[in-house]
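idk why but the lab printer keeps eating my pages so im just putting this in chat instead. protein + pyridoxal-5'-phosphate:
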Amino acid sequence: MSAPIYLDYQATTPVDPRVLEEMLPYFGEIYGNAASRSHAFGWQAEEAVGQGRERIAHLIGASAKEIVFTSGSTEGINLAMKGVAQMYGSKGKHIITSQAEHKAVLDTAKRLEKDGFEVTYLAPDSTGRHSAEQVAEALREDTILVTIMWANNEIGSINPIREIGAVCKERGVLFFTDGTQAVGKLPVDVEADNVDLLCLSGHKLYGPKGVGALYVRRRNPRVRLVAQMDGGGHERGMRSGTLNVPAIVGLGKACELCEIDMDTDREHALSLRTRFEEKIFGALDHVHLNGHPEHRLPACSNLSFAYVEGESMIMGISNLAVSSGSACTSASLEPSHVLQSMGVGDELSHSSIRFGFGRFTSEEDVDVATEQVIAAVKRLRELSPLYEMVQEGVDLSKIQWDAH
Ligand code: PLP
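predcted complex ->
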């Protein structure tokens, strides 16, 4: 068997060697606490943190003072949503989000419901996207926050963030977007895109795990948050705790590289995905693309192979590291909530696989993967009585797999 091939770049990315190199000294000789104001060890660490902050801010069109370091997007989401809800809860109790969000958003929203907030969960269209009009229609006098993700982690669909942000701005409602899958992959400019809060995560953009950032707008309007962690008042009181200097250095470097390499990365991913999809659709029938054909992350291909069960498929391609639905829910056999929210039936949801390409994926990787996927689907379909019936001309489309 050949070496395993990693095609799960939406779950996490490897650390870029250039990022690792920049981080290493901060595990050894440069070990100061960035909050130590009275000596050179602290100043050195503070300078490194400052550079990281600048680089992150630059990538998203923010100013360094608007960056709050976190342990990743789950924390960023909690801080943004609970922080806004608790700060502005006296103005209104209504929050709008999407059924297709990551569990970190959905579970935070559920917690806020228990705390007395009312949440509207918008259903995406059949490509997994929302329109600004849909958001506008859901806004109420008592809406204090809209939370719509930039790009979906399971299907890669990209929302019209600028337009949604404009609607929120016009109505004076704060707009938070989960930028975890988008930042570093797509151009992001919090000013032009009308975003008030945005979270990002190191391990999705070739940086280390366990570090991320929350952008919090300081002007026009100035967003205030109730801190979720009490302590030394770090990060202008919004997130107490000694900063993880090596990780912040790595996140900063990863952001700088994403900015420099964005066009190259995008073209690379797009050409691999096109190569992959052309071959798959050329060799197999009854394959469905989940997500928007164009408004989609260049590196993401979520496909449903009708008449093939996703888990058997994953076993059939065991040396390809891919994911059925979101990594965070793949332990359960529940069909993906994202696919369900788009109206994809149970059978096609269960037969979906997410392929993710990235900076270190080669054409050869894609070719080997493609061959294995095609062979596995053909093999499994030979065992499927339903597929045999379809081949014999029986129309199952209304009742079975093709009911998309
Ligand atoms: N939001 C999205 C869209 C994600 O893909 C992820 C990662 O799986 C998260 C949030 C959680 O991010 P983290 O792993 O940094 O907590």
